[in-house]
Each structure stands twice: as C-alpha cells, then as structure tokens.
Design goal:
19 strands, 3 domains, Rossmann fold, 13 helices, elongated, 6-stranded mixed beta sheet, about 400 residues, about 40% helix, alpha+beta, 4-stranded antiparallel beta sheet
Amino acid sequence: MTPYEKFIKIVDEAHYFDQHQEVLVALSGGLDSMTLFNWLYEARDLLNISLSVAHINHQQRAVSDYEAKALQEKMTDLGIPFYIANYVGSFSEEKARDFRYDFFEKIMEKHHLTALVTAHHKDDLTENFLIRQIRGSRLRHLTGMEAVQTFGEERQGLSLIRPLLDFEKSEFDATDYFEDASNAENDYLRNRVRNLYLPAFEKENPRFSENLAGLTDEIQKAMAIVAYSARAYAAAEKIDLIEFSREIENLQYFILQDYIAKFPALEVSKAQFDELLHIIRREGQYFHAISNDYNFIKDRYHFYIEERSKATEFETALTPYPTGDFQQIDLPATGQIVIRKRQPGDRIQVNGIDKKLRRYFIDNKVALKKRGNPLIVVGDVVYGVLDVVIADLSKSLKHDKMKRTLYYREKR
C-alpha cells in the first residue's frame, strides 16, 4: 500500500470530511504540508471537498517572500483560493502559533470554510511530548493531539482535522517543496529537541519514539477515564462542596484542574493550585483575588471563580426608582450620608445587640462575597450593609416623618 492509499483508507474510515465540503489547508510550503496538500488535491473529487489554502509569511528568512510568491503562483495555476498574512511583531514560537490560528479562524469565518486541515504527524507527537515535559506541563497536556477537535468558538461549528497523525515524515512523498534551512539551527527549543535530544535518546533505545507514542496513548486513555468520572462537574458554573467532598482526593485534584481550565485567560501556578485545593478541603469561607481579573470564592455551599468585573455593584438614589425594583434604608434627616467599604472596627446594632460588623458576618454566616458590599454610614454610625442587613437605628426611623430614605438596587 502506498502512502497515498494509506491516507485515503484512514480518511475514509475516520469519515473526516463527511460533514465538511469547504476545506482550508494550512500550507507552510515544507515537505509535510505540501504532501498533505497534494494528497487532498488528488482526492478532492473522491472526498467531495473544495480546497482553499492559507499561508503565513513569518518573514524570518531572506527567502520567505520568494516562497510565499511561488506558493501563490502555484495555487493560481491550480485554481485554488490562496490567503496569505505577513507575521508582525517580535517573534516567538508561541506568538507565531497564535498569529497563525487567529488568521485561519478569520479566513474560515469570512469565506464560510468549516474545516482546517494541518500536516501534524507522528514525529510531531513525540516532539511535543518532550517539549511539554521540559516546560513542566501537567499530565492533561501530555496527551498528544486529537485527530479531530473543535476549532474557534463552538457556535461557529468549525473543526481542526489532523489526518496525518499515523504517518511518519519518512512516508511523505512531495517532490516540490521548500526546505527551511533554519530547521538545522538550534536557536529554538523545538529544533534542539528534533536535532539533539531525540537522536540522543534513540541512540540509547532505537524504539524510544515508538515507546513515547505508546505512553502518550496510555495517558490519553487514563485522562479519558478521569473525564468520565468527573463528567457531573463538566458544565457546572459553581462546584457543590458536599458533592466535591464525597469524591476521592485524587479525583478532586483533576476536577479542580478541569474547572480552572474553563478560564483560559487565568494562569494558576502549581503553588496557587495546591493552596486553592487546601482551602476547598478545610472549613470556612474564602474570598480572594487570584489574579487581576478573577476572584476565587468559597461560600457555605459552593466554590467558584468569578470575573472581577462581574462583582456585584449597586446604584443608589434618594428618590425611588421608577420601576419599583429597589430596596431601601431609612436614614436621619440630617448628617452626611457616606457610602463606603467596611473598615476595621465598624460596628452595627441588630435586634438590640451591638457588635463588630466582622463578628456579625461570622455569627450569621454571611457569604464572603457579600461581606464586601457597601456600608451606609451617617455620622460614623452604620445604618446598614447593602443587600445584607439593616441596623436597628434605620428600622426605628421607618415611620418617622423627619427622615431620608436611600433607595438602592444592583447595577444593571
């Protein structure tokens, strides 16, 4: 069986393109992507697909412009739509990757393409595993690549397809491609892994790459079991503390990992993660900013992460809101009304008992998030905490004609 016949067999059995007719090929111009393009172009009628091509000119080599122009001319001759972007900004592997995929997504959305196809192959799996190990990635990030996964925003219905994961580079047969001379240089970690580290390991054990691929597959299977065991928490915005406490501790570890992963912009160090797990398991409530953008909250019943911009805010007025959707606190007719955050030593009188506000919160098990709500103060006396408690002094003014009433509601 030729490599092309193997490709057709894999694609057919996996039904990669059954739901996709408009396909975008990520084309660098190297051996891998040119082989992928050639095979897809040859099989386009068999697979009932229309091809488009996207190329990123990273502008890191003197021949980059020449290669981009040659690829464009080739696609023009074949009648294949060709989209190109020039990379801008300081270069790094991570920044370049983000730039590529952002561009691919924009092209797909603009031209109604539903599948992005890349030329990742078996050798990439081995390289990625070692790179992630070197960088200290967690277990879930050592699972390799999926042949098919959602791409972009889920609502768009886009897919990323990697049909070459069962191929080694030695099986690729393109004859017209560009050789990137910088691949032989060791300035970047990926090149050092490819040119130095992997050959050294394979010198010790010629089957090293094969064994590593097997380990990746086992990790993927193990993580699938973890995901199945934690499926009840997958869609939860808040994690129920009682249910969480019933899970074995090792599963709790992965449930928390999965939950944090729902916030891609949130970076949590291992030390922070361990501290959060400790906080969840111990008694007591907790409210803390774990980054500039997120709070971690543990109340009596749940723990959850919340964007700080979504923290409760209030609007106040001395005249009623026209909708009638408000709460109110009665205040004396004179004295400056101050709306502020709680300060050390603040006291409040409720049901005839005067106590520190902090003690009132603890005794009445007020949620930590609400303990930060604004206080209404007149003449250094606390008349209430918005959406939490109204002091006795305010209640005594309810039927007094000489008073002011502060109306408030959550900001919308």
